[in-house]
């Protein structure tokens, strides 16, 4: 499903229809959050201030296949990000004057997210938003090759969630 927002005018949210928790967060909520996060991160690069990304909520099996294909790790993971801006793909300046700048794809395993949420004692909704914020930062070039950069990234994730009005939702 494609939706329009600003400064991220196109957000494609693909929900796995087979997954019982695929609608833990509505498309409208995703729109609002990514818009707020884009504004908070002061996105640059699009001459028209328009950005696009894709979000897929899926299963452990589907994300494990991607993890194996792209990272040579034969196991599921919680979130994968494929940043379009990290590839050597020439941008056509004329196209950028009429189309959003594509940031990339975020894929989240709801199976892994549910396990992590249960282990941490908070809701699947909060865990999924946390993982989406993590993936979003990766699309913008953030990485965590060492402890100081991981701490900085986790702090920024917390800021993004707080700006969207999301607080850790403890359960049980």
Describe it for me?
It is an enzyme of class 3 (hydrolase). It is found in: Cytoplasm. Its EC number is 3.1.-.-. It comes from Phormidium tenue NIES-30. Strand 2, helix 1 (27-40) and strand 3 form a beta-alpha-beta unit. 43% of the residues lie in helices and 17% in strands. The chain is of the alpha/beta class. It is globular, with a radius of gyration of 16 Å. Helix 4 (110-120) packs across helix 5 (124-139). The protein has a five-stranded mixed beta sheet, sandwiched between helices. The protein has helices spanning 27-40, 60-71, 93-96, 110-120, 124-139, 147-163, and strands spanning 2-3, 10-15, 51-58, 79-83, 101-109. It is built from six helices and five strands.
Q: Would you tell me which CATH topology applies?
A: Collagenase (Catalytic Domain)
Q: What class do helices, strands and sheet pairing give?
A: alpha/beta
Total count of strands: 5
Amino-to-carboxy terminus distance: 33 Å
Task: Write the H/E string, N to C.
Answer: EEHEHEHEHHH
Beta-strand content bin: 15-25%
> Considering the protein shown, what is the CATH homologous superfamily?
Metalloproteases ("zincins"), catalytic domain
| Domain count | 1
Please estimate the helix content: 40-55%
- Compute the CA-based radius of gyration: 16 Å
Query: How many DSSP H or I helices?
Result: 6
- Overall pLDDT metric: 82
* Widest beta sheet: strand line-up: 1-2-3-5-4
Tell me the major beta sheet: 5 strands, mixed
Low-confidence stretches: 1-6
Principal-axes shape call: globular
CATH architecture: 3-Layer(aba) Sandwich
Task: Give the CATH class.
Answer: Alpha Beta
Protein name: Endoribonuclease YbeY
Subcellular location: Cytoplasm
GO molecular function: metalloendopeptidase activity; RNA endonuclease activity; zinc ion binding
EC number: 3.1.-.-
């Amino acid at each position: 499903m494609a939706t329009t927002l600003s400064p991220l005018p196109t957000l494609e949210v693909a929900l796995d229809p087979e997954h019982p928790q695929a609608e833990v967060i509505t498309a409208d909520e995703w729109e609002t959050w990514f818009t707020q996060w884009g504004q908070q991160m002061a996105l640059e690069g699009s001459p028209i201030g328009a950005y696009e990304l894709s979000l897929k909520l899926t299963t452990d099996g589907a994300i494990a296949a991607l993890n194996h294909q792209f990272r040579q790790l034969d196991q599921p993971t919680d979130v994968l990000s494929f940043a379009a801006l990290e590839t050597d793909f020439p941008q056509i300046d004329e196209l950028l004057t009429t189309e959003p700048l594509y940031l990339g794809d975020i894929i989240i395993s709801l199976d892994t997210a549910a396990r992590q949420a249960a282990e941490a004692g908070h809701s699947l909704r909060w865990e999924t938003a946390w993982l989406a914020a993590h993936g979003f930062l990766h699309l913008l070039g953030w990485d965590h090759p060492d402890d100081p950069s991981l701490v900085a990234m986790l702090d920024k994730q917390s800021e993004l969630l707080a700006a969207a009005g999301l607080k850790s939702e403890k359960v049980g």
